[in-house]
DNA sequence: CTAATTTGTAAACGGCCATGACGAAATAGT
DNA sequence: ACTATTTCGTCATGGCCGTTTACAAATTAG
């Protein structure tokens, strides 16, 4: 059977560039870089056979990537087979770096990641940001960025872009934070506040967390649901290796999926939304605890001590999550569900009831549920890596800037 | 801000082909054909400016497409502006044709669609197929296909492929019907039964229906949810102009989204699934009617007469649908929801309660709900058009076959 | 030590789009 | 009516890019 090729507007490098010889070259540069990056170390001949070009063509492409400082020659490979050994190539550890930043409710963090994916510099600033005006927060963040950039530059890296993860809604393809309830920011344009001549990306921390899971997670599928609870409960949906954002960018609002249609009414206008059962406020209330800054730690502490009320509250939250996820899994048929963010820390008490609900409501084999190994680092790493991926996906872009 | 190019494995023509000059040519041929097809009639210069190539390049591409019989020269355009008028090009009405077939519970249908999208031949065979063995049904279908192909050939069309819509689950990228409850077929390989040297595609009728909506619907968005009820209740999810199939191909199982978690238990193992409230059986039972062949007609008749029991049953089904769709809309943020298949015919009685539920449970503007204008024709047209799209997406493929 | 194998590179080749120029066919202005 | 202008389609030229072919280098097998 012939593979169906239905598609009208292909995404990514494949077609965003005009289909001319220059575009072709540019895409092939990306393919070479991707191949080496994926394998860690590869000879020219290996790259050629992997991406379907000839050795001669790959040679010229590699030359160019080396000239741009994106690829390095490691020297002859250890010969295991007959024939002349290849010369190992690796992605450079001294080229461009992705700068990731995170604006948290109680901290700011910045890190630099090189093309190999290694974190090469980082800086953290603790301190509650809830209710503070954007300007001083961004000023602090700017100095942190400056520190990290300086440290990266000492290691012969240069910043290729800045990506900022924020705990709130970000307008699609913009730098504007539409609403960040936990910071109490509204319609804040970070582009105007952040200095820098680099490309800037601003996105929701949940999205970056999911992307981190996609890029860094162990044995990561290309199709999964990444659930996190920071502000409300959000699910980032990854389909075919890409984030599903929705028409208005509101996709993934798992928190307002109806769990019990006649349940308590919700701020969204609905009734019995998941957030009424598994949201932070709801769980705290059910557990009979007073809120403080580190809610996850609070809950985990008490649950650890074996307090039945707290455990029951978390169990019930898990059940509600399981019901909502059953719906999501039936709709999307993902390979796995990953619990990230605050949910990762509470998973010991959430998972049993969650999985019971999920398997009980599924005919065939239930969708496996995993806990994110990245934990709270996800968003920051995802942000930094998003910049790195941009370079990997279009290496020519690094020469297009002064 | 630079557009993020994140993507690792791009889909479609864009990268499936090796990135060589031949591939480039092939993609550009597709772009020219797409442009003309989208606009109906276009001059070479207009195509050039639209797809970003030069007039000279487009000229040679057009020449090739004309030589292959995919494009036609209509003659000089009516000049409205200064300058020499262009020579209008149109997609040929005498080239390849897509043959679509539908295996329904009470009918077989076949049609031929030309590259312009016009239905040029069709044949229908009424008769209940429930419980019949696959072989005689396929034999009947084969003769219908023969008739349609003969008729198409009289109009100087030649079949470029056959796509079959079946009311059941089809294994991904295969010709095997895993399960078709209403036909009572299991693990039936249509590839072995259907003759022909053409490319064959077999898929679920709901999927083809959604694709028809995507390709033929009025003002069709690239991101929507197509809900249909044939066997069970299914939703085809279209994201960025492509069908979201899920890891195992089971995506879109709206029928088993939990609506009332403590409701009646369902064959799927869950409780309170949508199907328990809006499935055909459930609605019939609630309406107090005896099943017969044409269930939609039956329900519509009685509802039309104003029978309160029937209307109430449909109202309740609409409510349940609304609850399930609220969850789906929150997750996916589609541009619209389209009711197709049996639901389209019953929409007058379903819509009010469905929309009430959907708007009541949404904070911002609710996702609009539309009724498919294609109605029962959807799957058949979608199947035929899928073949046409395959040609449009890779015109060079028509010369690659003897 | 020779034959076989594999790697990387160089030169010639061919395909494809861009560039620039030209004739053709329409409109706009005088 | 006639010329200038604009736009269209095509042709010849040139540059870019991957392929093909050939060859030297480096390793293993015998």
TrEMBL record, chains A, B:
What organism, scientifically named, is this protein from?
A: Streptomyces griseofuscus
Known Pfam families for this protein?
Answer: MarR_2, ROK
Q: Where is this region: Disordered?
A: 1-21
Q: Return the InterPro entries for the record.
A: ATPase_NBD (IPR043129), HTH_MarR-typ (IPR000835), ROK (IPR000600), WH-like_DNA-bd_sf (IPR036388), WH_DNA-bd_sf (IPR036390)
**Name the record gives this protein:** ROK family transcriptional regulator
Domain HTH marR-type, chain residue ranges per copy: 30-81
**Similarity comment:** Belongs to the ROK (NagC/XylR) family.
- Please name the GO terms that the record assigns under molecular function: DNA-binding transcription factor activity
